[in-house]
Amino acid sequence: MRPVEHLIVTGDFLRPTDRGFRSSQTENIRWLYRLIRGHLARAAGLPVDCLVWGEGLPPEPFYEAFGAECSAAGWASFFHAEAVPPAVLEALEARFGRALVIGFELAEWCKAALSHLGIAFIDLNIHPVRFLPDVFFGAQTNDPEIFAALLGHHSDPDGFYGWADLLAATAVKFTPDLRLDSPALLVGQTRVDRSLVRGGELLDLTRFTPELQALLLRHRMLGFKPHPYNPGDFGLFTAGVPFRRVQMLKANAYALLASDQLKEVVGISSSLLVEAPYFGKRASFLHRSPFDLAGARQQAREGQHLSIVDGVLSADFWRDALAPRLAVTAKDGLRMALPPNSLRISLRNFWGFNELSSDFVVQLYQAGAARR
Fold first, then answer.
1. Taking residues 98-103, what's their average pLDDT?
2. Which superkingdom, per the lineage (predicted)?
3. Are 266 and 187 in contact (CB under 8 A)?
């Protein structure tokens, strides 16, 4: 890997929305940049820059180089590209050549290109296990020495079972009358997501008709939980599943996972499939998870996603992570004690966790205020 002169926080800076050719990730990248900028600067003593859609790297030349249309479908067509056009490599070299890159959900083609160029990256993703007191990051890197440094901050996912038990007990109080018509739950997803890209195309349930028909042979009824940001059927009925065989569910996803009536969760690549085993449910991926999560530290392999439950909001964490590639400042031992839901609130996204946790406190306050 190369000498580092500055740090760049970026992400999937070419990903558009599903309704127009404009960025869907600028806000997320800027959020991460503002979240960790100070910690990075204190740790490294180097400039910390931010790169988003259209600022320094306009998207259109990239799409043209990949031979893709300027749309979400075009983005999907090169998301997993292993052969990156020379013009793209030149653009990345010019912008990132002297940097260490910290990403928010970097595209697979970008990670491959950075690795080809010998540019180190640390890619941060919101971890798919989201029922702990706060969300946290899954971290991946292409640098073996950085991986070894991050491994010291990794939490074994086997330690998450107790939090699932606590939330499941809460669900008993939250939905005591929940009734399911099937032990099998299908889960929907958003229309555009990196985890839905296969063979250069975006998936929905229409691509899995044989698997759904096999599921119908095993179950008289199927439960279906739409994604909160995509209330449609996600191709379920177009795939040939009869209306009469489906129970459409509005219940909280964690309340469903906690139900003893449920035995199996089926989906394309939803994070709920990663979470389901913590609630004692069998998970069936129709495609695959975008995460290769490491287990215990001694079994972790380079390239896997490490579970960084806390520490990202401290300069000392970044001193450890960056030390293999650059000179860092002396450790100060300072660490923020974050209250529950800090990152959820900052992100403005609770993934349904609020319905079984903080909403109850608000409801108590509102009820008390109404009586006064």
1. 98
2. Bacteria
3. yes
